[in-house]
Amino acid sequence: MKVVEINDVSKTYHDTEVEVKAVNGVTLSFEKGDFAVVVGPSGSGKTTLLNLIGGLDQPTGGEIIVAGHRLSELRPSELIDFRMEHVGFVFQSYNLIPVLTAAENVGFIMNLQKWPKEKRKARTDELMQSVGLADRHNSRPSQLSGGQQQRVAVARALAPRPEFILADEPTANLDSKSAETLLDIMEKLNREEQMTFIFSTHDIRVMKRARRVITLEDGRVISDERTNGDE
Amino acid sequence: MKDYQLAWKNLWRNRRRTLITAASVFFAVFFALVMRAFQLGTYDKLYRDVIESYTGYLQLQQSDYFDEPGLDNSFEVDPAMLMEFEDDPNVTAVVPRLESFALAAAESRTQGVMVLGMDPEGEDKALNIRNRMVRYKLTPEAAEAIRNAGVPQRTERLLDVFLNQSYTDESRLITDLGINNADTASVMPVIRRYAFFRNGYLTAEDTGGVIIGSGLSAFLKAEVGDTVTLMGQGYHGTTAAGIYTVRGVVKLPAPDIDNILVYLPISEARDLYAAPGMATSAIISLRNTDDKAVIQTRERLNLIKGDNQALRTWQEMNALLLNQMEADNRSGAIMIAILYLVIAFGVFGTVLMMLAERRREFGMLVSIGMQKGKLAKVVSMEMLLIGFLGVAAGVIASLPIVFFGNARPLRLTGEIARMYEDYGFEPVMPMLLPDTYYLWQVVVVLVILLFTVAFSVRKIFKMNVINALRA
Amino acid sequence: MITSIAWKNVWRNKTRSLTVIAAVTIGVFAGVFSMAAINSSVVQRINAAVNEELSHIQVNNNDFRSSSDIRDLISNPDEVISVLEKTNGVTGVTGRIIVRGIASTSAGSTGVEITGIDTGKEQQMFTIDRKLIPGTGSYFGSDTKFNTAFIGEKLAKELNIIRYILSTEALSGLETKGVPSSVIEKLRPLEGQRFTTEKKFSAAYSELISEREKKRYGLTIKETAWSYREGSRIILTFLDLNNNQTGAAFRISGIYRTNNDLFESLTVFVPASELRQLTGIGEGQYHRLIARLENDDLTDGVTPVIREALPEYEVMNWKEIQPDLAMIADYINQIYAVFMVLILAALAFGIVNTMLMAVLERTRELGMLAAIGMNRRRVFMMIMLESIFLSFVGGVAGMAVSGIVIAITGRTGINLVKYSEGMEAFGYSAHLYPVIGAEFFVTLTVLIVITGIVSAIYPARKALKLNPVEALRGE
Predict the structure, then answer these.
(1) Is residue B391 a contact partner of residue B22, using CB atoms and an 8 Å limit?
(2) Residues 304-323, chain C: which have Cβ within 8 Å of B?
(3) Which of A48, B240, C292, C316 is deepest in the core (most CB within 10 A)?
(4) Which residue of chain C has the CA closest to B112?
(5) Which residues of chain B have pLDDT under 70?
(6) Do A94 and C372 touch (CB under 8 A)?
């Protein structure tokens, strides 16, 4: 099943006099269960492409369809709600709300969607368990290590059962061990729940684990390889 | 780059914060200035009204008169001494008076009055009495006639508001009746004709005439030409009584005085009270009326006066009024103090935030070689600049309002006006032109800034560079 | 949940938040307390006016108030009395004879309003008898061989009836009042000397003691030396019914002290019977009939009822007789509102600055929140709530502190006598007992919340304008 369809999408910036085509005529699609990585040098358009897929930005050309929704038809305020229901985000840093505990962070979106208390608690417990932080419900982000914070971020992103999770350089600030742990968890979730993951990264560790590697250069896809990854 | 240039540039790095902080200072300064302009202007007018129409700046009295005013403490007038007084460079005239209390009766109304025996010409020279004689009065008949003659609607309405008011000059009449420049030429002749008040004045030899205040005239229902009886206690307890004709009506600006004043030629007063050659006080009219000049004049005249006499300044004579105004003044000052206190907290909070935010930057500057002293200097300048910005803006914004309020004082009407008059104040609120009170605002803001500067400098000197760099 | 996040956000930077909250607390406290102080003097003035000077309703002939003509007696007093007594809400009725005249002693004379009263009835309706200065006699207590008068302290001073004498006992009595013996010794040269005016006495002792001692003990010395010789006499002169000048010597039965200098110097109370004899006014004849109501609030309702029943007379209530009393209460309310708004506006600057900082340093976080799905309304609410919390917490603290201080000073009072000569001339007491109605606090709370809301607008707009993409990229 196609989760994301990207049809001839472009994003052009007008930087003073110069026209910059950050994304230039990209056509791609992602299937459910994909564990894909978008790689390329700085300035290749990775982050811009992810922003477009996630509905954080609107393309200047082409169409993006996520789970049947045409993103171009959504107004900015609708995009926010759309993101809340359908997209999970894991950023490089500053993922969590500092004044809330880990559990509260995980339950944040569920709270916004007004889930009843029991359901919320149940799912939070389940998710915290999956990311291996069952004993850290009441810790504040400042009390967690970088890797733990990222894991909580994953749990939070998963909570509303989005179509896919977008992770922009999630391991950039982590040491090897934490990075490995994080990737293990993401792989597990991908396997067990068929959750689609789309990463952008520089990190070889991430690339090695991926089962699909999309290479961008100057805003164009120059290769799109499906591999078996680490089995 | 000079220090102050650096300071100026720094301010604009965080433009919003600079502007908001300066705006808060502006706010406080502006309101403080306008409020003080009102308050001080009103006091000034109050004092002037009483001094310039009644007490004068300096008075010669018998020593005990001040504590026990009464005919028994009058003094014998020595013409030679008064002439010596007049020789003083700052003295323009010396006018003796005989003042006492009496009961005035006209038809069947009686009222306690202040009888002021004076020299009509001298008193006019010293206190401008002739200019205070009523020229126009908006009697019901006059108002009716004016309406019939046709005047703008606004003026018609205002005729009701100011019914029965007396006027000593046209300018107030024009303001009260809302006559603007365009209408003056057509409306004024009408008003002059119907509202004109036939008035007279006293001469020193007039043996049966009095001038009464407009408030007294209204109360006793005594007009020019009517009879008034005066009864009282004379010198050394004799009975005083006499019948007089009203020659004219005067309007003094202080309602308290206007409601009870009766002018009498001093020779008549002396007859009435059986006090030949006596005076209860002598008004000393001055050229330069500044506080300093008044005191210096008094010192000079003290050498000439008799042993049993004393020279009283207007502050002493109006002690009660001064006290009241002081109380009011204090309450106003407290309100402004509270305002400044609140603003001070705001400024201080902003400074705290700013210091915290720039800790890293300061650490960096000092580590690359900037002296802490120089850094402190620049930062202090930044604060002072913000303060001055706010003060300057406040001052500039206030000036047009203060000048306007001075030229065209706010005139209260309706119930509030009546309340003021009941308390003896004319219901006008003029503003005082820029004076030392402007300086005070600058001083207060400076004090606030000084605290923040001191705090900041201390923080900079106590800063541990390494910790700061880690911020 | 947004609420709890907003609350927690406020405390992220404790120093900053506490500074703003402290400012609000102080501003609110200052505003409320000063208003309570001023309000109290108004309340006191109204009470004094009603209970000592005017009572609630006055009835007289239509011309009497302006003419004060002695012949202007009430045409049908029995009718008026019966109407008043029958009216609902009236608890007491009494009549007065009022004659303008002069009071004099050898020291001087001054105009007064001689008020002939029914001493028994008036004691029930007015509290002026309680204003008797202890030691000056009584409220028409002792026998009336002479004509007697109850006069005010200001009048007594004007006529030099009150003197200042530091008798031997008074001098030693100073010690019990806390005056050190060194000062007492300095004052010894004045022992037994009689001073006819306060000023002379003041001048005399000022020469003997230092400025500082004068400041501290001056008032006590004056109070102790204050003396009055019982049974002093004044001469009252006035016109009788036939317009002939008449009068008599009156023995002073007692001296009263209110906070109203004007009233004290003007109003001389004498028993009506004595005044009748001198003026020729007959029994049962009055210039003015006065009704007292159960409480002040009934005034507006009862006045028209009486007016309708007595159309030929002038019927006025205390608010109409002294409109400035009712007006001052309103006037003060308006000034209060303006003052509080000014203070809150000044505070708003600080709150805006604080909130701006709070928003600008959270750019990335706000970008993240928008990215994961927090819509604009929620972001706006969050920031607005943070601002409201700042102002509300400070406001509550300020109101609580002022409430406590008002409760305490309301009982102990604030003594402004040193600064107050001017106030008493207008009838305002120099002892303030701060009091404020609950409505003030309600209005104030609303204003405080509004301040929080208004202060949040600019920072919140800034937050909403953030583009998540740029915000996420970092500053």
Answers:
(1) no
(2) 323
(3) A48
(4) C111
(5) 414-415, 418, 422-424, 471
(6) no
